[in-house]
Design a protein that fits this description.
- The complex is a heterodimer.
- By secondary structure, chain A is of the alpha/beta class.
- Chain A has 2 domains: 165 residues, P-loop containing nucleotide triphosphate hydrolases (Rossmann fold), CATH 3.40.50.300; 67 residues.
- Chain A has 7 helices and 9 strands.
- Chain A has a 6-stranded mixed beta sheet, sandwiched between helices. In chain A, strands 2-1-4 form a 3-stranded antiparallel beta sheet, covered by helices on one side.
- In chain A, strand 1 and strand 2 form a beta hairpin.
- Chain A starts with a strand and ends with a helix.
- Chain B is mainly α.
- Chain B has a single domain, classed as MetI-like (MetI-like fold), CATH 1.10.3720.
- Chain B contains 10 helices and no strands.
- In chain B, helix 4 packs across helix 5.
- The radius of gyration of chain B is 23 Å and the shape is globular.
- The chains are: A alpha/beta, B mainly alpha.
- At the A-B interface, helix 2 of A face helix 6 and helix 7 of B.
- The structure holds adenosine-5'-triphosphate and magnesium ion (MG).
- The site of magnesium ion (MG) has 3 residues of chain A, from helix 1.
- The site of adenosine-5'-triphosphate (ATP) has 12 residues of chain A, from helix 1.
Chain lengths: 250, 261
Amino acid sequence: MSLLQLQNFGKVYPNGTRALDAIDLAVQPGEFLSLVGPSGCGKSTLLRLISGLADPSAGRIDWPAGAPQASDIGFVFQDATLLPWASIADNVYLPLKLAGVARAPASARIEEALAMVGLAGLGHLLPREASGGMRMRVSIARALVTEPKLLLLDEPFAALDEITRFKLNDDLLRLWRERQLTVLFVTHSVFESAYLSSRIVVMAARPGRIAADLPIAFDGPRTPELRTSAEFAAVCRRVSGHLADGMAAS
Amino acid sequence: MTKDRLIDIAAPIVVAILFLGGWEWIVRANAIPPYILPGPWLVAQTLWTDGPSLLQSLLVTLRTTIAALVAATGLGLALAIALAQSRLVERSFYPYLVVLQVTPIVSIAPLIIIWANDVFLSLLICAWIAAFFPVVANTTLGLNSTDPGLNDLFRLYRASRWQRLIHLRLPTALPYFMAGVRISGGLSLIGTVVAEFVAGSGGADSGLAFRILEAGYRLQIPRLFAALILLSLAGVAIHLVLGVISRRVLRGWHESELGAR
Ligand SMILES: Nc1ncnc2c1ncn2[C@@H]1O[C@H](COP(=O)(O)OP(=O)(O)OP(=O)(O)O)[C@@H](O)[C@H]1O
Ligand SMILES: [Mg+2]
C-alpha cells in the first residue's frame, strides 16, 4: 500500500502560471525519492502541496494509510529557517512545543535528535553562532524530532560546500535507514540524487510535469567510493539523458 | 580606551569649551545685560543657587513624563497587538491613530484640560497622545514582519493564532517595539512640557515648563536658562537610560543589536 498517491494533480497560481499539470505519482513507504528537474518545473510547489502548505487547484492527494497528523511530516526548507532568538535546542523543541509537549519531558527527545545529526551537547548555541552546515543539521533535527513518517527536503544542501554536503548526504542516508523514513528530496544535482535515491523522478517545465520515473539500484553499498565507480557514472548519465530530453521537449 | 573612543569623547568637549568661551566673551565684550542674554558663567551660578527649587519642579515634570511613557508603552503594545489581529481591524482603525498623531498636541491640550478636570491626568493624557504612536506604528510593523519561511513552519505544525503570536510574532516585533519605546521616551518629555505650558498652572505642584514661563515673565533670564539646561539633561538621561534598557533586553539575541555594535 502506498504512503501517498497523487492523481491528476495540478497547481495553477493566481497569476496563471501552470506550476504543475496532471501529475500522477505514488510514493511507497520507505522510498528515498528524489525530484530533479530544471528551475521552475514545480519541485518546490509539489513539496508544498504534499505538506499541506498550499492547496492543489486540480486533482487529489490520497493517503491510503490515513491522513497525516502535524507530527507525521517533517519539512527541511532550502535555508535553515531557524528562530534567530532561540537556542539550537529550543529551535529543535519548537515542533513539540507547538504540539503542547512540555519542555522537561521533551528534553530527552531534543538531545536524541541533536545527537542524530552530530550536534550532541551543542544545544545551548544560538543559530548565529553556528556554521551554515550546523544550521542545516539543526533544521534536520527539528524535522526529525516529531518522529515523522515522511521527510520532505527542498534543496537542503544547495548553499553548502561540497565536503559538508557529502557529509550530510551520508548522514541523511544513515537516518533514512535507521528510522525507516520515507524521503522526498528535491535537488538540482544529478550526482546527489543518484547517490542518495532508491528512485528518481525527472521533471520537465512549462507546465511542470513528470518526464521520467527511474528506479535506482547499485550492486555495492552507498559509500564515498561509489561516487567514482563506473556503475555510478552510468546511472548519472542515464538521469542526465532524461533531464536533457525533458528540457528539449518543453 | 581606543583612539577612536577618545576622539568620540574629547571632540565634543572641545566644541563645548570653544562654544561656551565664545559665548562668555561676546556677552562681556558687548556688555549684554543678563535679562537679554546671560553668560554661561552666570547661568552656572544660577543653576547652583536656584537648582534645589528647580529640581523640585523637574521631579514633577519627570513624574508625568515617566507615567506617560509607561502608558504609551503598555497601551501602545496592546493597541498594536489588537491591530495585528486582522488586516480589516488595522485598516479600519489605523487612519484614526494617524489623525490623533498628526494633530498638534498644543491645539487639543485646552480641550483635554477642560474634560479631564484634573491637572495630572490631563497632562498625562496629552503626553500620552504625543508619545504612543511610535510604539504602535513600530510594533505593528514588527508583528507583520515575520519571516515567510518561519510562517510556513508554524503553518506546517498547525500552530494556533495564539501560539503564532507568542512564539513568532512578538519575538520578531521586540526590536521594533524597543526602537519605538526609545522614540517615545523623547516624545513623552516634549508632550509633558507642551501640556504644562498650555495648562500653565502655578503652585508647589507645577512642573519645569511653568518655571520657564514664570522666569520669562519676571525677566529672570539666567533662571530660565538654568531650567532649560535641566530639561535638556533630563531628555539626555531618558535617552541614555532607554538605550541601556533596550540593549539589555535585546542583548546577545537579536541581529539589530549585533549590527549596532
Ligand atoms: N507564489 C507563487 N505565485 C506565482 N507563481 C509561482 C509561485 N511560486 C512559484 N511560482 C511559479 O511556479 C513555477 C514553479 O515554481 P517552483 O518554485 O515550484 O519551481 P522549482 O522547480 O522549485 O524551481 P527551483 O528549482 O528554481 O527552485 C515557476 O514558474 C514559478 O515562477
Ligand atoms: Mg524550488
